Amino acid sequence: MTPKVIDAHIHVTKFSEMKTEALEYMMTNLFFKENWRKLELMPKFLIDIMVEENVEKAVLINYVAPSVIGFTESVNEFVSNYAKEYPDMLIPFGGIDVKRHTREDIKNILEELYSRYEVKGIKLHPVHQLFYVNQYVDDYGSSKLEQLKVLYEFCEDRGIPVTVHTGTSMFPGARIRYGNPIYLDDVAVDFPRLKIIMAHGGRPIWMSTAFYLLRRHRSNMFLDISGIPPQRLLEYFPRLTEIAHKIIFGSDWPSPGVKGMRKNAELIMQLPIDNEIKDSILYRNFRQLL
């Protein structure tokens, strides 16, 4: 029987807003190179792919990173409108530029994201947005970002998950030091009811840190395996069965090197682990989380 699949991490956004170097890097994926305009402008194009590949739902990851990637806060209206026609299949995640706004601005923008644009989650990409996810603590002195605390409190109160990029990035201008997942430890401690989705598991240099954090924060931290080659998942997480109930499938499609949502799911199905665990990763864990 073909397994059910929910893809918790695909990139469908305003590609036309991307900086030239970033777009050129994305085009190393030949599917993307040939189809990015259709993917941006025609939601039905994505839906047809999902139906063909038997992907039940997909999270459309959007974030704001004008200086590194080019994305502005217009991506929030974009993803809201994009998902509106297919609410049973497309789940919009939005973003915010926490460094550019005051505390009060942040509250108003988040309220707009939640009420007007009806985003179901927030994406933070510290490697592209150039901040530490715990930069709200006093240790940062004059560089402290109280705005992050406002964001976490807002999402915690409303049960909105926050997906956080961890690990490396090949995009020009990315700053890898911001991707160490250890900084999420403060966030998980200070906001114990916040649903934190750790994207990419610190790939490829902080995987052991990611594993430790997932075991330490048993109730509010989850692992999105997008960007991790599925065939290497057990190499990176040899004790995967201990955290299997916290792992959610994501493909990172159509990023460079990713052949497809279904293709990555099929590689998960080939792993030497129990079918019950495979089903949890591909489908059930995300349904329970969201």
Automatic annotation (TrEMBL):
Keywords of the record: Hydrolase, Lyase
InterPro entries on file: ACMSD (IPR032465), Amidohydro-rel (IPR006680), Metal_Hydrolase (IPR032466)
GO molecular function, one term: hydrolase activity
One Pfam family of this chain: Amidohydro_2
Keyword presence, Lyase: yes
Top-level division of the source organism's lineage: Archaea
Domain Amidohydrolase-related, residue spans: 6-286
Record has Cell wall biogenesis/degradation as a keyword: no
PANTHER family per record: 2-AMINO-3-CARBOXYLMUCONATE-6-SEMIALDEHYDE DECARBOXYLASE, CATALYTIC_ HYDROLASE
Name of protein: Amidohydrolase
Species name: Caldiarchaeum subterraneum
